[in-house]
């Protein structure tokens, strides 16, 4: 029997508690973006002598400023889902059948296309992050390696940490619009390579790969028999491509086909090679807080049969994502008008072009014209009086109250990333401050 005095909390001799031990795999988890933000008080008052409101250009959340809003049809679908009382119970762990069928139908290219999933190829998830975690955890284990790009969305690293899989970084080529270095990828693949992650349109690069480049990538994956995890959360948010503009770029955009001719879904060009596509309502539908995503398998050869079963088992851990959002999803995908998508892309394109033009006028900065997603990256920070990009953006925040993520967050030293969902007038105000900052800290030529 336990000592009654100890249980009652009365004084008396007691053994010191042994500290609880942290799972070492959890200890490996790191998220540079969150860690840098945690080190900077974005709510702090301006520094002494700096009377300026904070301009936060750090996080890729389109809802922050209220200038990018979901379609009214999405709001109506969620209201109907709530009032219909069909979402009160636990969903199937892999997601409601009608939600999975809606995703399959939305992404299918039809009988003549390469990508034609059914509802049985879809697993619903808690946002795209949940989809990525499920795919990585199901494919990867200790002793295996996972190929990720450099630069990358660093949440991949956090998701891979718990699997204890080795990460191998393949280079993207700045001089070629951050296309994948296929020779470098080939050199990293071995018999323990579990998968490779391809992010397109790109975060943090704001790039959009051409169909030709994706076909070259797919040919290598087929030759080396590597499963691809295609992170296409920004699918359709693209208006240009690396290299010459495609002839079809000015053709009418087809609803559900993601700006065909400009954005190329990887599963549309990879033949019968296996791919796991992940996405969510967070970007194209402008609502990351809704936390609804999906995993879609393209697997004509049945290579992923065990993985498919594993994804279903992995979904037991959380028993399916939000029921209300799942019930709303078929109406969201069916009823959102094409004009909503086009207006979103047009606004992002105009903002990106204007931001690129303004930054190009600041001596020393070297912005890259965005082609998709919600970002613009800028190099040239070596031309200023700071040891690295992190020091540059920290000083910028302290002196001018402009917060931008350094490239180090993405393993892209010497760069900074702008978010282009910010209203243009705020971006231009930020650029004025950045220009003043750069004028004060530009290196003097010998």
Element-level helix/strand string: HHHEHHEHEHEEHEHEEEHHHEEHEEEH
What is the structural class? alpha/beta
Percent of residues in helical segments?
A: 25-40%
Q: Categorize the overall geometry.
A: globular
How many helices does DSSP assign? 14
Proportion of beta-strand residues: 5-15%
Number of strands: 14
Low-confidence stretches: none
Q: Termini, distance in Å?
A: 81 Å
CA radius of gyration is 24 Å
Main sheet record: 8 strands, mixed
State mean pLDDT (0 to 100 scale).
90
Characterise this structure.
With 446 residues, the chain is of the alpha/beta class. It is built from 14 helices and 14 strands. Strands 2-9-8-7-6-3-4-5 form an eight-stranded mixed beta sheet, sandwiched between helices. The termini are far apart.
């Amino acid at each position: 029997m336990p000592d009654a005095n100890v249980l009652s909390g009365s004084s008396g001799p007691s053994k010191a508690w042994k500290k609880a031990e942290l799972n070492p795999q959890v200890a490996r988890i790191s998220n540079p973006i969150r860690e840098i933000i945690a080190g900077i008080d974005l709510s702090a008052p301006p520094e002494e002598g700096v009377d300026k409101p904070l301009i936060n250009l750090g996080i890729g959340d389109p809802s922050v400023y209220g200038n990018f809003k979901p379609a009214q049809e999405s709001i109506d679908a969620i209201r109907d889902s709530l009032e219909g009382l069909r979402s009160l119970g636990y969903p199937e762990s892999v997601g409601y059948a009608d939600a999975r069928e809606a995703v399959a139908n939305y992404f299918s290219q039809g009988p003549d296309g390469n990508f034609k999933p059914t509802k049985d190829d879809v697993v619903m998830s808690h946002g795209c992050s949940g989809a990525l975690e499920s795919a990585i955890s199901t494919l990867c284990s200790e002793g295996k390696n996972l190929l990720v790009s450099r630069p990358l969305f660093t949440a991949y690293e956090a998701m891979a940490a718990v699997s204890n899989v080795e990460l191998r970084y393949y280079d993207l080529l700045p001089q070629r619009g951050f296309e994948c270095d296929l020779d470098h990828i080939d050199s990293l693949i071995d018999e323990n390579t579990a998968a490779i992650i391809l992010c397109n349109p790109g975060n943090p690069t704001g790039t959009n790969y051409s169909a030709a480049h994706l076909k070259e990538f797919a040919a290598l994956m087929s030759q080396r028999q590597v499963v691809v995890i295609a992170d296409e959360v920004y699918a359709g948010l693209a208006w240009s491509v690396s290299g010459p503009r495609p002839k079809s770029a000015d053709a009418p955009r087809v609803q559900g086909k993601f700006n065909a001719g400009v954005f190329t879904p990887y599963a549309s060009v990879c033949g019968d090679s296996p791919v796991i596509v992940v996405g969510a309502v967070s970007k194209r539908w402008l609502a990351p807080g809704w936390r609804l995503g999906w995993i879609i398998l393209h697997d004509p050869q049945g290579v992923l049969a065990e993985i498919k079963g594993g994804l279903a088992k992995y979904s037991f851990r959380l028993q399916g994502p939000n029921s209300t959002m799942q019930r709303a999803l078929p109406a969201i995908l069916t009823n959102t008008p094409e004009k909503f998508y086009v207006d979103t892309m047009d606004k992002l394109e105009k903002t990106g072009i204007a931001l690129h033009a303004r930054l190009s006028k600041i001596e020393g900065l070297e912005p890259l014209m965005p082609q998709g997603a919600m970002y613009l990256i800028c190099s040239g920070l070596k031309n200023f009086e700071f040891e690295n990009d992190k020091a540059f953006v920290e000083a910028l925040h302290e002196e001018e109250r402009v917060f931008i993520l350094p490239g180090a967050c993405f393993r892209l030293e010497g760069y900074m990333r702008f978010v282009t969902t910010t209203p243009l007038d705020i971006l231009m105000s930020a650029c004025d401050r950045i220009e003043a900052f750069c004028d004060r800290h530009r290196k003097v030529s010998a």
